[in-house]
Amino acid sequence: MIFTIQTINGIPLTKRNLEYIFAQSALIKLTLTNNEITDEKFPSGITFPTNLNEFIITNNKLTEVPDWTKTLDQKVIGTPKLKIIITTRTKTLTPFDRWSYKN
């Protein structure tokens, strides 16, 4: 299996495109930049690929941390070592804005 690092810059992504991207099991790092992602477009209930170590969303139109699928102890399902960084045009969001995230 070849592990991939993916940067997607400047392509307006739809909810369906985002769901496809997250379904890639070999993904280890994902950066989404300038993709016109809004709160409505970002898919909720995402189970991240188990190999994903770093997920960065930069310069999009999110105003809150997306409602990801979580375990009962508030961890993101699938990735025990996942580092999440979300920067919007107004502020940097962390998972602590909506729920506590611990490794």
> How are the strands ordered across the major sheet?
1-2-3-4-5
Structure class: mainly beta
Q: What profile does the largest beta sheet have?
A: 5 strands, mixed
Beta-strand residue fraction: 25-35%
* Chain-averaged pLDDT: 70
Tally the helices.
1
- What form results from the Cα inertia axes? globular
Reading the helices and strands in chain order gives EHEEEE
Using only CA atoms, what is the Rg? 13 Å
CA(first)-CA(last) distance = 26 Å
Number of domains: 1
Q: How much helix, percentage-wise, in residues? A: under 10%
Low-confidence regions: 96-103
What's the number of extended β-strand segments? 5
Molecular structure report:
By secondary structure, this protein is mainly beta. The protein has one domain. The chain has 1 helix and 5 strands, in the order βαββββ. A 5-stranded mixed beta sheet has the order 1-2-3-4-5, with no helix packed on it. The protein is globular and about 30 Å long. The protein starts with a strand and ends in a 10-residue tail after the last strand. Mean pLDDT is 70; it is low at 96-103.
